[in-house]
Amino acid sequence: MHNHDHHDHHLEMGKKFLLGILLNFIFVVVELFYGWSINSISLLADAWHNLSDVGGLIISWFAFQMATKQPTKNYTYGYSKGTILASLANCVLLFLAVYSMGSEAVTRFQDPHHPDGNVVMLVAGIGVVINTLTALLFMKSNELNNRAAFLHMAADALVSIAVVIGGVIMVNGGPDWVDPVLGLGICIVILWGTFNLFRSTMRLSLDGVPEGLDIEKIEKELVQVSGVKSLENLHIWAISTTRNALTATVNVSSTDVSEIEKIKSEMRSILRNYRVQHTTLETQTDH
Predict the structure, then answer these.
(1) What is the pLDDT of residues 140-198, one digit of tens each?
(2) Separation of alpha carbons 211 and 213, rounded Å
(3) If DSSP codes are grouped into helix, strand and coil, which group holds residue 58?
(4) What is the rounded CA–CA span in Å between residue 158 and residue 110?
(5) How far apart are CA 122 and CA 103, in angstroms?
(6) Partners of 280 in the beta sheet?
(7) Domain-by-domain residue ranges, the chain?
(8) Exposed/middle/buried for 179, CB within 10 Å: 0-12, 13-18, 19+?
(9) Which pTM does this prediction carry?
(10) Is residue 229 helix, strand or coil?
């Protein structure tokens, strides 16, 4: 029953992510088209920003799909590591997009354009609706990927509101620098979020301890388990963006098999609270 419920949960979450991907991809196409048509750097930059949403949603959807795959003889952990590689590729693309949009925004200060403010307002207003609807899909879930998606989409709705305000200023005869300033502002938002994502992704790529896990705190709690004398060779790393693994040598005070299994079971229960789902515990006694 647990496996069945777990599978149904992944199917339900997968459908939500697919709906979010579809809504945002359609909007990216619309925003790129109108941004290019009216030569608006703020719309083009926001389109790249929303494209990053699509990339993030695809990565999360991919993680859920990979979670249902069984390991093979050649890939004993399955294909979950692909989520980390996909996240790294997404970061590289976003850095390139920020460089391109930022350079164009700086150029606009020297050669200003005055895009149609009404179109900017209308397209950005659609973005507010799309981002809000997508955020609502994930609002009620506390799962890590869902929570991240909600916060990201809610923040993007605020960025689109800022572009709407910029459109209002343009319609009312605002200066030509409003559009490139908005474009640069959005580039800074993308750069800040992408840098944090890149840092986390590189950490996972190098098998570092996942962010949010304190290895010293975990070791201290594990050593407090009755029958455990000390730990050696403790390693924690990520096997995907949502799953972590741990290996350790456990010095125990008992040679009784049933007692050792009880110790391991209690340690695994503690580790699940730290989002460590895969554990390899080797036990030994002092000579």
Answers:
(1) 765 555 666 776 777 778 778 888 888 888 888 778 788 788 878 878 877 887 788 78
(2) 6
(3) helix
(4) 28
(5) 26
(6) 247
(7) 2-205, 215-284
(8) buried
(9) 0.68
(10) strand
